[in-house]
Amino acid sequence: MKGIYSYKIDFSEIALEKEEISSFMGLGPVPDEPFNSMIDTAIELLTDNKNIEGGFTIKPVTDFSAKEGFVEIETKKFNTGRMITSFLRKAEFAALFTCTAGYEVEKWSHKYKDEGDFVMSYVVDSTGSMLVEGAMDIIYEKLKTMASLNNLTITNRYSPGYCDWLVVDQQKLFSFFPNKFCNVSLSESSLMSPVKSVSGIVGIGKDVKYLGYICDTCKNTQCVYRAKKMYVKH
């Protein structure tokens, strides 16, 4: 299970749904015009994107405290917060991941902004957010298959910046990756480049459980997981 894995993803592999893009924008699952056509245009603009990729490295979990809200991987302590830490309990390994939609989204979003079309710029940006999440869904399934072949299961994925996990922990997370792993870099302020990139952690073990997302208790209305309607399965 240990190692570093990376994958190039073709746009055609990603299930990019207009309904999810529209919901993420706060328009509901069925957008009215002109947004309906604008989303179609944004999807078409990104169809030729050849820079979608992602990957992960798998490391042993060496310490853990749900009470104190941290997970230690090798010698680095991640302050994931009580909620995420409790979801990662019983994890024997952790998959640290990153995934990006590349600079294509920024190129088109900035183009429309420079032309004064701020609405279309926002539509492209929102479409890019869902594009990178769709790509990460594929990376997640590859990890799930790998774990299953080793008679292990995985938790859901969690990212710095959500559920009280501070973004500053990106620095620790990226220290496990080779330089510009999957063509994603990190600034001193812990922001990823390209902007449409995600990173985070997945727990792996014999007794871990997939619990889904508890969106009904979260107040972050711009969270992509809320838009994808992922909830805990009781």
Features:
single chain; 234 residues; alpha+beta; NADH Oxidase; seven-stranded antiparallel sheet; two-stranded antiparallel ribbon; 7 helices; 9 strands; 33% helix; 23% strand; elongated; disordered C terminus
Short description:
The chain is of the alpha+beta class.
What does it look like?
- It is a single chain.
- The protein has 234 residues and is an alpha+beta fold.
- The chain has one domain: NADH Oxidase (3-Layer(aba) Sandwich).
- The protein is built from 7 helices and 9 strands; from the N terminus they run βααβββαβααβαβββα.
- It has helices spanning 18-24, 35-46, 81-87, 104-114, 118-149, 170-174, 224-227, and strands spanning 3-8, 53-65, 70-73, 76-78, 93-100, 153-158, 185-186, 192-193, 197-205.
- α2 (35-46) crosses α5 (118-149).
- The two termini are 30 Å apart.
Topology pattern, helix = H, strand = E: EHHEEEHEHHEHEEEH
Indicate the radius of gyration in whole angstroms. Answer: 18 Å
Proportion of residues in extended strands: 15-25%
The CATH topology comes to: NADH Oxidase
Mean pLDDT: 90
Quote the distance from N terminus to C terminus: 30 Å
Which blocks of ≥5 consecutive residues have pLDDT under 50? 229-234
Helix percent band = 25-40%
Count of individual domains = 1
Number of strands: 9
Query: What is the name of the CATH architecture?
Result: 3-Layer(aba) Sandwich
Q: How many alpha or pi helices?
A: 7
The general outline is elongated
- CATH top-level class: Alpha Beta
Q: Which class do the helix and strand fractions yield?
A: alpha+beta
Q: Characterize the quaternary organization of these chains.
A: single chain
Biggest β-sheet strands, sense, barrel: 7 strands, antiparallel
